[in-house]
UniProtKB/TrEMBL annotation:
Pathway in which this enzyme or protein is active: tRNA modification; tRNA-queuosine biosynthesis
The protein, known as: Queuine tRNA-ribosyltransferase
Lineage, opening ranks: Bacteria, Bacillati, Bacillota, Clostridia, Lachnospirales
Family: Belongs to the queuine tRNA-ribosyltransferase family.
Domain called tRNA-guanine(15) transglycosylase-like: residue spans: 10-370
Amino acid sequence: MYELLKQDGRAKRGIFHTVHGDIQTPVFMNVGTVAAIKGAVSTEDLEQIKTQVELSNTYHLHVRPGDKLIKELGGLHKFMVWDKPILTDSGGFQVFSLAGLRKIKEEGVYFHSHIDGAKIFMGPEESMQIQSNLASTIAMAFDECAPALADRGYVEASVARTTRWLARCKAEMTRLNGLEDTINKNQMLFGINQGAIYPDIRVDHAKRISELDLDGYAVGGLAVGETHEEMYDILDQTVPYLPLEKPTYLMGVGTPANILEAVDRGVDFFDCVYPTRNGRHGHLYTNQGKINLFNKKYEKDMRPIEEGCQCPTCRRYSRAYVRHLLKAKEMLGMRLCVLHNLYFYNTMMEEIRDAIDAGSYKSYKEEKLYGMNQINREKEAQI
């Protein structure tokens, strides 16, 4: 159940009550595709860096080690030793990303596994069954993520099918939650709004799926080829037609700036691989902007990644040392960078919540964006 505590403009501050604990929103979910955060980050680490929600991938866990095995072992929470909320995405994005390996039909999608080429079929019912076996806190509906720049006719047909699939997802989840051997009988379902960059299709779809009275609603199919301005425009037009009293989740987004702008447009939930992926490549987020530790200027820099940062990395290690680890291809270097970046994101979300509580979100957003642009301004001044 979602409790809306305050609004500051369109920015929302809430608490999402779940069987695995409360989620303070807005929230950034830390992406652990195969039940682990890439970069050797443990469950204990997640607790240290203020993680509220871990996100895992239905398709990947179905392929390996297998959702039935995870159910046999007590569910995903027990498997990865994490007692806070977990969201599982539905496998729908893999329909998009594995375009060369799939065929989409009314009943569902026929895949070839990216691991061993084995044939896989996944439809709404199968996705719900897999997610029920995983026993996540929040399950995502099975949808097709149409390319952002797809032609209108394709998008209309795709969205209509996604709507039909959503009704099937809801019915199947209701059935599964009532079974005796289901691990999490309180599993929640979020529907997904699609429509590429056609505002009228988006709005119509938002109205239709809102009628299903789901636990939450996501905006999918963005950050996949359109410009940031197009994404913000779609959010401006679509989010007002999603239920205010339910959480709104912008899938796969994004940069700190994207998050700040989307919160201003009424979004509560976020996830993205940027902080972990960038961290593994030595690209680190700071309040002055992003730095690349591979730059030679950090070779003798004994300062932390960011002065005043309380993450496990900054409390102990220097830029020079972490840079050395990265150059030497030591796993510890990647791990320390990922920990810093996730801590930065999770801390930014805390600041966002505090700013909305204080009724000062607009000024906070402007100051944060200005600060994070400092390095870019300095670079331009040197050219």
